[in-house]
Amino acid sequence: MRIGFVGLGVMGFPMARHLAGAGHALQVFNRSPAKTLRFAEAHGGLAAETAAEAAHGAEALILCVGNDDDVRHVVGEALDDLAPGAAIVDHTTTSARVAREMAERAHASGRAFLDAPVSGGQAGAENGALTVMVGGDEAAFERMRPVIAAYGKAIRRMGPAGSGQLTKMVNQIAIAGAVQGVAEAMHFAARAGLDLAEVQAAISKGAAQSWQLDNRWGTMAEGEFDFGFAVDWMRKDLGIALDEARANGATIAVAALVDQFYADVQKLGGRRWDTSSLVARLEPPKG
């Protein structure tokens, strides 16, 4: 398939690489021209100078950009350059509102828009093992599923436009509580004088087991946070979820509290630290 790809950051670059490896013809664009050229030199395809050029004649346009405004800007610039009947697949984490807006706009032009946020972080993107939550037209979803499969291992349509973004909000709410739980558990274990490695080995085989416990306990114990999903990004995502909760009447008090704890981490200089850095504000002893 002829595919335009916009946004070659830590997630987008490896996702686009998987598409190239699957044999798709890529037209790539990034706001930093050096990244565009680096990708084209390494993996082939057209190094576009604008989002519109990346979209020109493409059967699909895949976005992995920053926020609602970025999505609006790219769609506004590129929509009319896409081939008739093309689909836009947006992997940006945004509000459900903008997803619905873009779906209506795409439909009016004879094209489709799928909101398709992902989970799995940079490692998932590098390994082609992302979880992808999709909202939008079912026929467009089925057409694009084999494309998304180049970098997604679990791909599910959640409902109409906006449903993918709403599901991503659920995902981030659950992660926020889980990370804080692990951070407090480690803090308590350290203050109690327990061996942290032994504690992890003991509780990870029972009901306390979680992805965060299995994958982050060791790095949290060592105070290592220079990797993974950044605190700034998590606060952006939680802000979207909190806005949606105010609109739909949901009570997500723990998520709101953890969002403020992440603000504390930002004040410690941890804006780019991994989300597991919640433990840093509790100052656990290392080891």
Walk me through what this model shows.
- The chain folds into two domains: 2-160, NAD(P)-binding Rossmann-like Domain (Rossmann fold); 166-282, N-(1-d-carboxylethyl)-l-norvaline Dehydrogenase, domain 2 (Orthogonal Bundle), CATH 1.10.1040.10.
- The longest helix has 29 residues, at 163-191.
- Helix content is 52%, strand content 14%.
- The termini are far apart.
- The chain is of the alpha/beta class.
- The chain has helices at 12-21, 33-43, 51-55, 68-78, 96-108, 121-127, 138-148, 163-191, 196-203, 211-221, 231-248, 253-267, and strands at residues 2-6, 25-29, 46-47, 60-63, 87-90, 112-115, 118-119, 130-135, 152-159.
- α8 crosses α11.
Poorly predicted runs: none
CATH topology of the largest domain: Rossmann fold
- Largest beta sheet: what is the strand line-up? 3-2-1-4-5-6
- At CATH level 2, the architecture of the largest domain is 3-Layer(aba) Sandwich
CATH superfamily of the largest domain: NAD(P)-binding Rossmann-like Domain
Percentage of residues in DSSP E strands: 5-15%
End-to-end span in angstroms? 51 Å
Instruction: Compute the average pLDDT.
Output: 97
The amount of helix comes to: 40-55%
The outline comes out as globular
Number of strands: 9
Number of helical runs?
Answer: 12
CATH class group of the largest domain: Alpha Beta
Largest sheet features? 6 strands, parallel
